[in-house]
Amino acid sequence: MADSTNSPPPLIGIDVGGTKIAGVVIDTSAHAGDGDVCVLTQADRPARPGAAALIDDVAALIDTLLAHVPADCGAIGIGTPGTVDGTTGDVRDIANLSIDHVPLAGAIHARFGLPTVVENDVNAAAFGAARLIEDGTASDETIAFLNLGTGMAAGVIRDGRLDHGSSNTVGEIGHIPVEPHRWRCACGQRGCLETAGSGGAAKRLWPYADPPMPDILAAAADDAHPRHRHAVETRDTIVAAIANALDVLAVTVDPNVIIIGGGMAQTGAPLLDAIRAELRRRAHDSGFIHALNLPARLRLAPKDLPVGAIGAALNAAASVGA
Ligand SMILES: [Zn+2]
Questions:
Q1: Which of 66 and 4 is assigned the larger pLDDT?
Q2: Coil, strand, or helix at residue 103?
């Protein structure tokens, strides 16, 4: 038995989404579980618009979580959309919750008295996924996480730490404007990769099923399906944009491992197979791409764990040394 006095304290992780806020308390004692992470309790509640509501909702969720955990917790980590100030923990421009500015870290720290670290939601999920998929992966490896959610963005981890670059723009790969259809992007450009290679794009391009991606892949694989040809075109458009994003990550970040996550990754193996087939096709045509050996670097994020909330908690601990 491990000496409990030497065990790290439990950690609280919160993942703010556009419609719901998810929370966990995790134990990171050695041999606690997957990647040495054990979820002690989890809960969620609907997200409401406005800064005051967000602070109240996060605090209420933490109260709910703490009611189920007798031990003292060591830190609070929060992953959120919007632009996070890494120094103050303030967040700007959470569009889905109509928030221009919220002093999130300060307000939650004031209520609970625990070190509180706020991080961009994709970065938090990247940190969680990297820990949870560890399959002998050394912590000094470079890991990229490609989030295929409403939009497309990546998080990058080097030597066990998130890479924020000089202005928190590392990984905004969805806004590289090279998609040949030249669709208009919410960012104001045309042809951004996320206008084709994201869950939001798949919903727009295939309004016949929700979630769209499993239906697209099934129809594309079935000659007799009434929308077969359209499904093949749609699949190829989406997968090409994702493969472009993976190529960009490979040549700019050169990660040992690229983890695909976000809502679209819930499609699972059929999506991974389609992406790998496209990468192999490119490798067949190019010795340069072949040498990158991208299909072997791909992983899927764990499907059944709240990766964003777990990553927010782990990142908080890494940031404050809890
Ligand atoms: Zn864009």
A1: 66
A2: coil
Beta strand segments in the chain, E:
11-16, 20-27, 38-46, 75-80, 83-84, 91-94, 99-102, 116-120, 143-148, 152-158, 161-162, 257-261, 298-300
Q: How far is the CA of 293 from the centre of ligand 1 (A)?
A: 28
pLDDT at residue 63 is higher than 50:
yes
Q: Which residue ranges form the domains of the chain, and what is each CATH number?
A: 4-126+305-320 (3.30.420.40), 137-300 (3.30.420.40)
Q: How many CB atoms lie within 10 A of CB 214?
A: 15
CA 35 to chain centre: 17
* Residue 308 burial (10 A CB sphere; 0-12, 13-18, 19+): buried
Q: How far does the centroid of ligand 1 lie from the alpha carbon of residue 45, in Å?
A: 30
pLDDT digits (tens, 9 = 90+) for 176-204: 999 999 999 999 999 999 999 999 999 99
For residue range 260-307, list pLDDT tens digits in order: 999 999 999 999 999 999 999 999 999 999 999 999 999 999 988 999
| Dihedral angle computed from the Cα positions of residues 261, 97, 88 and 13, in that order, rounded to the nearest 10 degrees | -50
How confident is the model at residue 321, as a pLDDT?
Answer: 80
Q: Is the link from the previous residue into 211 a cis peptide, with omega within 30 of 0?
A: yes
Cα-to-centroid distance, 25 and ligand 1 (Å)? 35
Cα 226 to ligand 1 centroid, rounded to whole Å:
33
